[in-house]
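dumping this here so i dont lose it
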């Protein structure tokens, strides 16, 4: 996998906060920055472009009934 070097500068507060977080998580600055970039980039992609939401439903032939779902999951009574 090819890699690119990306450089930037942070002000003292940004650097201090980043350093605190990565130290608490026990990861390197490099790993923390990569994770931050991945999260930021994924947050910029509209849900409509997310491949997960383009999956077509598949018929399994099994009949389901969701009418009691809340009661089974949360113990709620109908009504």
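and the seq i came up w/
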């Amino acid at each position: 996998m090819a890699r690119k070097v990306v450089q930037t500068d942070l002000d003292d507060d940004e650097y201090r906060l980043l350093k605190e977080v990565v130290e608490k998580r026990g990861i390197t600055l490099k790993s923390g920055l990569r994770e931050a970039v991945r999260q930021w980039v994924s947050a910029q992609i509209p849900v409509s472009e997310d491949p997960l939401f383009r999956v077509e439903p598949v018929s399994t032939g099994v009949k389901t009934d969701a009418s009691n779902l809340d009661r089974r999951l949360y113990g709620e009574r109908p009504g």
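Residues 11-45 form one domain.
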